[in-house]
Model the fold of this input.
Amino acid sequence: MKKLLAILLSALMIVACFAGCQTKAPDNNAPAPATDLEYIKDNGKLVVGMTEYAPMNYKDDKGEWTGFDTEFAEAVAKELGIDVEFVVIDWDNKWATLNSKKIDVVWNGMTLSDEAKTNASCTDTYVINAQVIVMKNDKLASYTTADSVKGLNFAVEAGSTGKDIAKENGYKFKEYGSQADAMSAVKTGKADACIIDITMANAMTGEGTNYADLGVGISLTEEEYAIACRKGSDLTAKINSIMAAMKADGSLQKLADKYSVTLTK
Done:
């Protein structure tokens, strides 16, 4: 009798364990997110596509992402009640990466261009920028106009506004993976000069930097930065709302002062 009871008890325990350990089947009838913002909130994080570009997005001494755009994105994600994840992307393929939902935004000192407006839903502008020529300090005085540099070999970031400007001006150029790579090409003598954002040029050159022998030359364009969301995304309006509030309470200006960037009016 005891043996029979033991067998029955063991069988009951196996059945109970099986029932308790079963994984709940996904609810295929659950409604799909109605909007892009709902999709992002359901994922619990805002995936930011960027490149390493001081002072907008770069790594600190501990290897953590920091910078103006980094902290700005973190503030927006906090307001949305979700986390933020930073993903380094191929800038030349940013639109395909955005539309495939591998990232949710392109947020990395992105110039508000006709190309950006065509391929994405762009926010209000927030930082003033310019495309400038960077070269060795001892060469700066010899090149003071856009025409004077036409014989130089330029380094530019693939898919960047700097590349567009070089092409428009008929400059000879080679494409690199990032603006930092373009600057490195100038430093090592692979290029005579590079065309990059003034925000990066000011942050990365001068005494005490890794590019102390490079300096900022003439400005070729003036422009403004915006954030790119997917076409038709309701996230665009939400970021604009949070941005406006941060401008009103002074927190965005405080962030701009920290990283020496100039906000748009």
Summary: The first strand starts at residue 45 and ends at 50.
